[in-house]
Amino acid sequence: MANNAFGIDLGTSKICIYNHEKKRVFVERNMIAIENKKNVIAYGDSAYEMFEKAPDNIVVSMPLNNGVISDINNMQDLLRLFISEITKGNYKNSDYVMSIPHDVTDVERRAFGELIEDSSMKAHSVSVVEKSIACAIGLNIDVKSSQGVMIVDVGYNTTEISILSFGGIVKSKLVKIGGNKFDDIIKATVRKEYNLHIGSKSAEALKMQIADLKRSGEKGVVYGRNVASGLPVECMVDPIVLENCLRESFLQITDNVKELLESTPPEIGANIYKQGIYITGGGSLVSNLCQNVANGTGLKVNTSDSAENSVIFGLAEIIRNNKKYKNLTFEV
Ligand SMILES: Nc1ncnc2c1ncn2[C@@H]1O[C@H](COP(=O)(O)OP(=O)(O)OP(=O)(O)O)[C@@H](O)[C@H]1O
Ligand SMILES: [Mg+2]
């Protein structure tokens, strides 16, 4: 690409931006804090700091829901503020490549392009690529080959299961389970088992510690409000209780994977059998999920060290080798 270029993966919980000029990926929470309904007072990680703590006149919100844009004005502001910060305001005439979910309506799809086109960003070009294709490229899979692959992207609100072959999506399924659902289940379980009301951040922190706690034989320390006394207390939570409460959700993901496999053409199924399933997305990092999918399907499961960043790594590769991937991106 002749101009400066940006890859953008708008996730429900995180916004990832690759800047080709700086050859760097920037990641921040996809959140914005608005005071008195009009002034943006924080965005990204600083807005997340205020989440569940801000006074009533400050609304901290996420402009994406289930992977689609639910608040276009705030999303536009957030994106412009991030890119302006990264480039110190020097971003005019740039090329943008964005990843978009497969399972969206035409209106939702158009909204991704309009984010940049209708803003004051004065883009040179805006193109989009299917999120699961970018994800596969980020996992170093040769997406243009005739080998069928299955990608399971466990995100924040949703899990996108896709079967790819010859650079296209053969089948896909969106399941309404992701990392946020795991946090909600942990919150409900801690309340039921320990009489403790905890916030989403504490639930997420507990979720991320399950594997380490099991390994060390320790319990997780969490702070919250005792349901009976109403007072703040410290509590020790057993990681086995946490892991058990997530089993049902893992089973639902596995069942959906199996359902999609059952309707997959046999030649592609044979490829998947040989290579295994690729599981990625931040939500896939939770303790025991990959193991559950492997046990439930009897297939090998390939995991990734960069599970949270596969999509943005794929977008970076598409920008670096844009000629090679030209027929996988579409201008909007
Ligand atoms: N080490 C970890 N262990 C468990 N869960 C994790 C870990 N790291 C991140 N997560 C979870 O991953 C989820 C976010 O995943 P991801 O970053 O893939 O979502 P996203 O791209 O923002 O959203 P989406 O693609 O669904 O729109 C969060 O719920 C977060 O708690
Ligand atoms: Mg994502």
Q: What are the salient characteristics of this protein?
A:
single chain; 332 residues; alpha+beta; Nucleotidyltransferase, domain 5; 2 domains; five-stranded mixed beta sheet; 19 strands; flat; binds adenosine-5'-triphosphate; binds magnesium ion
Return the CATH class of the largest domain. Alpha Beta
User: Terminal Cα separation, in Å?
Assistant: 17 Å
Structural class: alpha+beta
Outline type: flat
Instruction: State the CATH topology of the largest domain.
Output: Nucleotidyltransferase, domain 5
Please mark out the parts with pLDDT under 50 across 5 or more consecutive residues, or reply none: none
Quickly count the helices.
Answer: 10
The CATH architecture term of the largest domain is 2-Layer Sandwich
Instruction: Give the assembly state of these chains.
Output: single chain
Element order, helices and strands?
A: EEEEEHEEEHEHEHEEEHEHEEHHEHEHE
Helix % is: 25-40%
Strand content: 25-35%
How many strands? Answer: 19
Mean pLDDT score: 95
Q: Main sheet, how many strands, which sense, barrel?
A: 6 strands, mixed
Rg over alpha carbons: 21 Å
The number of domains is: 2
Bound molecules: adenosine-5'-triphosphate, magnesium ion
